[in-house]
Write the structure tokens for this entry.
Amino acid sequence: MKGAVHAEWTKLRTLPSTWWLLLAVVVLTVALGAAASGAVSTDQCPSPDECHEDTVRLSLTGVWLGQAAVGALGVLAMSGEYGTGTIQATLAAVPGRARVLAAKAAVVTGAALAAGTLAVLGSLLAGRLILPGNGFSSAPLSLAEGPTLRAAVGTVLYFGLTALLALGVAALVRDTAGAITTVLGLLYALPAVVELVGNEEWRERIREWAPASAGLAVQATKNLESLPIGPWSGLAVLAAWAGAGLLAGAVVFRLRDA
């Protein structure tokens, strides 16, 4: 297994697309988070202390863009080998297909978590620098605060689980375009479709089980009672999606010809 992980890491780090995607995770997440932080102020509130804006979640808004790059990273780690035909060489070197997928999962998750950590820290730093100038000076963002720490750690885990989900979908679909379309549909189209559902009860159910809306509940630090699902429960839903995707991908990967 150690040799398989080393081989997958060598393949991943020698691809220029890997570093561009990891850079995109950080830049897109921080940039959108900074823009969101700069777009709000306490001007419309009775007083700054009576503004109920969730500044932590606001600072982490950029995850909505960063997750696309993470999804592409997870997909290309698997489907890229089918596109170039190198999957045959990989399976010849490591005959155990479960071992191949596990090694890919390990290196992709590690890369996503590393980039996610930088993205989250950068977003919170940007919020800490920008928000006081907009009137939010009474509660600066700090990882010493329990809810802020939970949102930060949960968001990093969100990136890792998204990468695993994308990897599983790519193992299932094999085609790069099809896999990326499927992943982006789950992350973006499904939350948009929710708003078209007329029945409020069904809207809440879909929000509870959609991977993105459920997983990102972990970012909330205020008004938790209004969430369709609790922070850690929502992240568990995303973990279930990632696990199901990997399991389905592993079964198909094992049964069919390379």
The first helix runs from residue 2 to 13.
